[in-house]
Amino acid sequence: MRASLLVFLLLFNLLGFSQEDNQLETNITVNEHIEGSLLLPEGGQSDYLTIIIAGSGPTDRDGNQNFLKSNNLKKLAKSLAQEGIASFRYDKRIVKQIRKGNVDKNIMFDDFVTDASSVIDYFYEKKQFKSIYVIGHSQGSLVGMMALSEKAAGFISLAGAGQSIDIVITDQIEKMAPGLTEDAKKTFEVLKKGETTTDYPPALASVFNIDTQPFITNWMQYKPKEIISKVETPILIINGTKDLQVSVEEANQLKDANPKAELKIIENMNHVLFIIEGDDLENSKSYNESFRPISTELVETISRFIKQ
Length: 308
Prior knowledge:
This protein is an alpha/beta fold and 308 residues long. The protein is built from twelve helices and eight strands. The chain folds into two domains: 227 residues, Alpha/Beta hydrolase fold, catalytic domain (Rossmann fold), CATH 3.40.50; 57 residues, no CATH class. β1 and β2 form a beta hairpin. The radius of gyration is 20 Å and the shape is globular. The N terminus is likely disordered.
């Protein structure tokens, strides 16, 4: 009996690895700034391509940065491949710069929009896929909706903010360190004028580093609600109830701005697309726990939206 069970388990494992191994992944260079992975489902063909745009910071194609490794975007790509949907996920240009030790201090938010547009154009011109869908995670949501054109068949916002980034950050500070709220507001007022400042508490240094202030100024001028209201392609907005960075209210604001959009709130899903049953400590730790699976409800929702 035990021998039979062992054979079954070994066979089960082999079948699981075989399914993943049959997914075809190719490294593609789009231009001097952008490299990424094209992942095709078993059989090497799909009518659908998703372009996955990562969130803020020096985030690579797999959804990782610095000492935080969740592999959430890689898991999303592989899960979509199991549903017969191809994907292209790419390193943000700053990742490549860091690896080469040549970081452009003048990098702007607009550069990320340019990169996303270039990726969409690249695959549209290849005509390898019948339909292209853009998936933007966190900051990538705003980047994606700004890069959209008639070349995309649809847009999916994952944990995307509805308000401008200065309001989002101020709200986060008010929840975590309310005593710093007024200092944050004053600093943002300076940035809105196109100026820089060092007149803020040391506790806010990670937010308002002098080198990144021009980037923030560029970023905060864009209001996601206004931009998504003008999007005419089908839209799917997804947020989780355990998201510590982008609240469900942000998703509701995006939905209100474009009533035709579909809204999906996933119970207990956090910002890195994991299901969290515990408290905020478990939630925070999960950002560096790559063993966790992403939400199956998330994958099912995206797959249905694309194939409908």
